Amino acid sequence: MILKEEMARQKAPPLGISYMGLAWVGPALIKYGTDAQKAEHIPPILRGEIQWCTGYSEPGAGSDLASLQCKAVRDGDDYVVNGQKIWTSLAMWSQWMILLVRTDPNAAKHLGITCLLVRMDTPGMTVKPIKEMNGGTMFAEVFFEDVRVPVANRLGAEGQGWDVTKDALANERSSIGDVWALKHRLEGLKELASRCRRRGRRALDDPGIRQRLARMETQVEAMRLNGLRFLTKQLRGEALGAETSINKLIRARVEIESGRLARDIEGTYGVLAKKSPHAIDDGKWQRVMLGWPPYVIGGGTPNIQKNVIAERLLGLPHDAP
Ligand SMILES: Cc1cc2nc3c(=O)[nH]c(=O)nc-3n(C[C@H](O)[C@H](O)[C@H](O)COP(=O)(O)OP(=O)(O)OC[C@H]3O[C@@H](n4cnc5c(N)ncnc54)[C@H](O)[C@@H]3O)c2cc1C
Known about the structure:
By secondary structure, this protein is α+β, with helices and mostly antiparallel strands. It folds into two domains: 14-153, Butyryl-CoA Dehydrogenase, subunit A, domain 2 (Beta Barrel), CATH 2.40.110; 177-313, Butyryl-CoA Dehydrogenase, subunit A, domain 3 (Up-down Bundle), CATH 1.20.140.10. Helix content is 44%, strand content 18%. It is built from ten helices and ten strands. The protein has a four-stranded mixed sheet with strand order 1-4-5-8. A four-stranded antiparallel sheet has the order 2-3-7-6, with no helix packed on it. The chain has a two-stranded antiparallel ribbon with strand order 9-10. The termini are far apart. Bound molecules: flavin-adenine dinucleotide. Flavin-adenine dinucleotide binds next to strand 1, strand 3, helix 9 and helix 10. The site of flavin-adenine dinucleotide has 20 residues, from strand 1, strand 3, helix 9 and helix 10.
């Protein structure tokens, strides 16, 4: 945490290749992994040598993840996996995947799920990149056809996949709710507002813009303080849970608002992107405008975070009256 803060203060690039490994695969391995799995995977994660990807979502299972259908059938010392995943971030460049499969189609849907660790070069796996609205290609569909995964690569017990995922998702939401990138974003927006003119004066002197910057600063500070509560919990050895949805939800709001705010600060220049010679800061803020989905939809949509907060933190009833 200290290293991350210091790197962010220096505006160093984020933790890059090891991001998923450090944020949620490693912690899941520490909690559920065998000694052999920990010895194999933790050191390369810490050394930043291995890229992990996360195979949860399927075409028919996103918010309702427990409905997943990708199945694994035991055959001797292997599981044989068939099915499809989608929206798998960084799958094209990963060496390993943390994968959720259905091992018991007859069990209650949360109980029939198992977590496997899969090498991305296993025969029978096909990765098809998906083009995004900003022109980039960051995630992919992954298809499994009779993919054999050793039973030794199962993380946790058979049928324990949902418990593994709940912990991993809390860590994912806590990492998405991380505040340091947003602090830089906020500073950048203030600096942009001091350069751009709006209604004949600096955008920074416009009361509407000032109010929006102040609201964002308040949200980012609330996230920072909430993040310290998570840290305290972790230092006490307690698992993170539903509370991580708060920062994930605020991050979604700040992500969307920062793109809109930049557009309003830039005024008519706000519609010019990278290739235009007139684009402000070479279209940096337009990339922010189009770059919100990983933070807003990835790790669970805002609606799902609100459901979690309502039911698990506020104790509100599951069904509307
Ligand atoms: C950039 C990006 C990166 C991603 N990376 C990964 C990854 O690496 N690995 C991975 O497995 N997945 C990844 N995802 C997938 C992501 O987790 C899912 O897209 C997300 O969980 C939503 O699922 P869905 O797309 O199937 O939408 P749906 O679940 O079909 O949701 C559609 C809409 O219905 C709403 N909705 C659904 N259920 C409810 C409910 N119960 N109450 C209220 N509203 C509801 C949702 O909020 C949403 O607005 C990524 C997604 C994005 C955009």
